[in-house]
User: Fold this.
Amino acid sequence: MSTPDYAEKIPNNVSLNEDRRLQRALESWQPNFLSWWESMGPTLPTEDVYLRTAVNVGREGWAQFGHVPMRDYRWGIFLAEREGDRRIAFGAHKGEPAWQKVPGEYRAELQRLIVIQGDTEPASVEQQRNLGATAPSLYDLRNLFQVNVEEGRHLWAMVYLLHAYFGREGREEAEELLHRNSGSEDSPRILGAFNEETPDWLSFYMFTYFTDRDGKYQLGTLKESAFDPLSRTCEFMLKEEAHHMFVGTTGVDRVVERTAQVMVENDTDDIAARGAIPLPVIQKYINFHYSVSLDLFGGETSTNVANYYTAGLKGRWLEERRKDDHLLASDSIMVDALADGEIGQTEVAALVGLNTDLRREYISDCAGGVKRWNRILEQAGLPQRLYLPHIAFNRKVGAFAPIEASPTGERLSAGEWDARKGQWLPTETDKTFVRSLMQPVYQRGKIAAWIAPPRNGINGQPFDYDYVHLA
Ligand SMILES: [Fe+2]
Ligand SMILES: [Fe+2]
Assistant:
């Protein structure tokens, strides 16, 4: 492990200067990345932004804060420190030393996993590129840009692996990561949720709560990988992801808080005319973002994922804390299924049901947010509650894709679904209304009327700090 080289063109802690070929390859990818950032990244012109930059990987002081022009952000390559004698924790190679190189037999699969993860990182930057124009405060604007530059760094993290370990094919895939674009007709991003638009800030908070959280769980499984450089890369990315989760969690908190406040002050549920977001609209946004994020975990059963596990490429969430043999060859699991056309469950081999295992971890994590938001309603003395819709609701992937179900899990005919879906998913009217509230507030210490201010600023700074200087 080298000390981080911050003076280099590409900041890194992987001794890039000792591998001239790799360094040159990445340095020639860098201008392509920058032109992607210029053309597909944030559209709001800024002088500089108060940003966190990763400069090291240690427990203390891994990042520094300062005002930087976003174009000059120091996107770097940082892997968590190497454990001296890391052993593979699961699968057929359990107990063997972790791999420092890619085994030929798993090359294609590992490359695929890295490309799929890598594709989501720039996608979210693209989805969020116009949000700066309608930021509710400078504090929120800064958080948006922080998430954006870090997703850019996560792209760097995946591109480093592709360049360093996958030869010419890896370099080609790295180019493709800049060519595909979110929502593009000809070359869309790989996963569905990453082709949806993020047109307003309520969507942004929901995205960072629900969809970034999917990312957290995917990274968690890759962090267990036998391929050590991938494991260490993901471990460090998870550190940055924590802030993205925070932006989502507290963003929705603050929307709910403001909504509750306006409801109580005016003693009415009908607060749209008073410039706040009605609870039923918030619920519809939860329904949408939660259900599309559930799809990201794939089908309930998957032989590919079983093979990845046995091969040691991808583990379970918190693999080492699981109290079993970490082989799972003779275990079973109940997975969601259609049984005679009805919503139910069926028993399958545990290995084949690993997507379900991961999705369940995710679901119980998501429930934590709903609990927080309901506490806010409760403290305001309101009887209304938010909820997560049923797992069969609005699914496009997996066992429930062929059917329609209500948020409470009641099976519906296609006709009933069409007639009622506007009660559960944001309609054009809802979206237009939310968009109408999205007027930018760029004065220091001011906040839009539809959201409460944060409890604290960033890095000990006050809320009215000059987080962003507009151009
Ligand atoms: Fe990311
Ligand atoms: Fe993220």
